[in-house]
Amino acid sequence: MLQTPVETALALETAGRFRLATVVRQHGGAALSDYAKSLWMPPRRFPELEPEFLAALAAEFRRLDAEESQTQDWLASLQRTRTLQAATHLTASEGPTFLALHRLALSGLPQGESYLVGAYSGVSFANAAWSGCLNLDGRFPLEQMVAPQAPGFAKLRRADLDRARDGGEHRLSLIPGSWRDVRVGDSPIPEKLSLLWPHVTEIVCGLAPEPVCGEPFSTWASRFVAAQLRTLHPEADLVYFDLNKVICEYLLSVLPNRDHALHRMHFDAECRVRVETVFPEVPWYTIPIEQKGRKRMEVLRCEAGELRGRTVTMPLTLAAVLDGLRAKTLSPALLPVYTALVPCNGLTCLGSFEQIEYLAEYRKGWAELELFDPERLASARTDALTCGRCLDTSGNPVHPLDLLLDPEIELAPLSTLLELLTPLLPRLGVR
Predict the structure, then answer these.
(1) Same structural domain, 130 and 257
(2) d(CA 197, CA 147)
(3) What pLDDT does residue 1 have?
(4) Model-level pTM greater than 0.85?
């Protein structure tokens, strides 16, 4: 039986989820339709979107082969709504949690506006979203997704049986096992994916361009996921893109400007000391490394004026950072990404239960730096929670691919935000 919003909020506070508890206490009993509309209320005070940010977005949309008119429509919509979906990780196919947050956000999308999904690619392929896999529920046999004649099918079958014993979900891996710890962003399409794709069921492969070995994985995956979402939500005007690529292009433009807040955070010695103090453990960048023949991603933080990881140290200089961004060895992580989005451009980032916790702390840190307008920063929204888990009427999780394979699946009816959140509570330490 569902707990009340107050009971759930108290349990979340006990689990250390204080911002989530506040949202549940305030909105847990609210009708989902009303709460969804509230997500799209623009902040009271916001700056004009920076030309450098708009240019970086436009470049990404063109990379995804958007026509110029469509690019301008998406940019204009963002300037009106000031709202970006930032809860997702870039992946070839999403799961029940991401599907739930899309359904919630889209149900409140103002008429005539676009839904911009900035998917975070600064994660490894083995992140919780399983970015290198086709993900679906255990109700479908593997053969319904890929033909037995596919290369390596026997190995795929063994891996699938192992997972079935643990949890029941199917994951069809599109990457070599050695890529598990490799960063999704800036990775090429592997040969495994290009060879496997002709054997994937037409219902699914018909939604994606042919994956060409060596071309950017994020470009292919962004187009594929966007096509899945558009099929499930044909009424929506949406774009799914690599958020880290956008911020990379943006940083290349603004970091050389000595007056820009991000330049000062990086390279002004006095300011950087304050940044290190108020953001001591926050990731700045990621970098690919190879050890003992195995590739992985390493997180870099700022310490004593340097970018330091577990095994890597590099100078935090303008030349080094720009060279790393151009070479695609450096990818922006949480601090530059959200500094660009929130205090620099005044965006509301729709996010997960994790995001609303750390964004509230980031806002305190940004205020201490004294680089941003305090009133505008105070009005920035950091609690735009999109969450939940998509279930059918029997309580089974539902993935986007499930609905594509079987459009007759009936989703469980939901009326309140708390009902949407409830399937996630055990994961949050609430029983």
Answers:
(1) no
(2) 10
(3) 47
(4) yes
